Amino acid sequence: MSKTQPRPKVVIDSAIRVTPRLSALPIELVPIAGGDVSAASLGNADALLTRTVTRVDATLLASAHLRFVGTASSGVDHIDTHYLKYRNIGFADAKGCNAAAVGDYVLAAIASCHRLPALLAGEIVGLVGYGHVGHALAARLVALGARVMVYDPFVHNVTAGVEHVCLEDALGCPIVSLHASLHGDYPHPSQNLIDSTRVGCIRDDALFINAGRGGLVTTGALLDLASRGVTLVIDTWPGEPKISAELVSKVALATPHIAGYSTNAKINATDYLIDSLVSALGISESEVRADVTDEVPMVLDVSGLSRVDTPARVDTPARGDTLAQIDALTKLNALDKAISAVSCIVEDDAHFRRVWQSAPVSQTFESLREHYRLRHQISDLRVTLSEPRPDLVQILTAAGVGHVH
What we know:
Layout: E1 9-13, H1 20-23, E2 28-32, E3 47-50, H2 58-61, E4 68-71, H3 81-86, E5 90-93, H4 99-112, H5 116-120, E6 124-128, H6 132-144, E7 147-151, E8 162-164, H7 167-171, E9 175-178, E10 207-210, H8 219-227, E11 231-234, H9 245-250, E12 253-254, H10 263-281, E13 298-301, H11 323-342, H12 345-358, H13 362-370, E14 381-384, H14 390-399, E15 403-404
Parallel strand pairs: 1-2, 1-3, 3-4, 4-5, 6-7, 6-9, 7-8, 9-10, 10-11, 11-12, 13-14, 14-15
Helix pairs in contact: 4-6, 4-11, 11-14
């Protein structure tokens, strides 16, 4: 791009993080709230960086002269990609940007619902969807000792330790977690995938987690599950941001679509778009500064979990505790401590319910998302041990801890 040319104008949803890489580009950033992005606001823009709250289609873009649209999200059901292709408008999404953060959320849900001991003992987890999030989560679960069954009609090869099964078998697992993309394309549409018919596949004693897309399951199906005693952890909701107040009151843990909201995920969501943006706008590589990180590693001291200290945490040996059982509990405590160091799921649930009860409207849901405080990830942890413990190193590394020493 010549220095004499005007800087390209890029309209950006004001909730998208402006990272060092993005701010270094020779562009004019125009922040607008996602709900306020309109055809008029795009009149002389060269690019649009958006989120799931903005519907990008012919209605929005008919009079625009955009060269690029990027969504800082994994889901693209809010984007009419066919129209963008017809208009020859470049497009990129941020698939995989929040895979680690969502995986952390699922582990926190499992721990908070007291299913962590069963998981480490070989519990079966059914994952619906084996994309970026599902694939990464499956690897962590297998490393932790769980059996993993995956349903994804678009995937034919899975990694070692993961079993490819039909939807009914995946839904029949003791723990079920949804991570499929949302679409209505034949022959395997995922919209309302779990409805009043398929809900019968889910066990009454199951833990059911939706941190994928709200439209994968109907409100009626979730209410049915709740009435049967299924433990529900819901982050993505049918019909959001207009969600069922009755459903909120019946789930074990409720959060406002923030499973992927970590600092690293927010940075990734922006930076994953930059190469495509630069290409579409004709910015030369010499005008793009190197990436800069603004993260500070966390330190988690688990020295108190040494073998000597552990018996104080469990019943007395007189009740039959063996050294192997103590070691197993030590690993469980270490893992739980690592998850708790970054997880806010219980606090997020309490805050969501308190605010939602005072104003159960769509604006409340969106406001909670927009103003959510970003979390650290398990991968940010730097864990110190007071003595060499290969078993703790193994379990913490399996969970995704960045470094253990």
